[in-house]
Automatic annotation (TrEMBL):
Residue ranges of every copy of the Polysaccharide biosynthesis domain listed in the record: 35-159
Organism from which the protein derives: Priapulus caudatus (Priapulid worm)
Name of the protein this chain belongs to: Protein PBDC1-like
InterPro entries on file: PBDC1-like_dom_sf, PBDC1_metazoa/fungi, Polysacc_synth_dom
Amino acid sequence: MAEHMGLGDLGVEGVMGAASALSAPAESYINQPELEMEWAMKAYEHAETYFNLLCAVDPKLLRLTPHDDDVYTKLRETFPDLNVGRLQEDELKSAEAKEKWRPFCNYYEDKIQDFNFGTLLRLDSTSDYSEKNSILVTRIQFFAVEIARNREGYNSKIRELFKPTPKTKS
């Protein structure tokens, strides 16, 4: 994964400003490059950390939330045929898919912290994050898919295929 600027490079005022901005409703932001960069950096850092975790630990042992059992059960009840190993963008982003995902996601509004934060998800579970293999989804969609991947064994080969990437200092 590419080297990137850290939050520390923004300074105290920049970080405080970003934190304040990130707490405002999403509808109030239109084409603000600084905010988009903060979201992208946060999503990237989350993806990098999660992938390194998959490379280092048996995914079947991971607990991503205190509600993993519920999230997994509800995912499979709502999307019994969803192939979490290799997703298609339209299964998450088409108008029809959004109508089905919306109630699923909103169910976790008071259960999962930051349930609707933008989070990167790999489309193909056998590959690393890349521009071609990543899609932006809500955090609860990420949790649901990755919990299923971990439980169903889709992430088990990651440790054989990839090694953790050491964090670089800016």
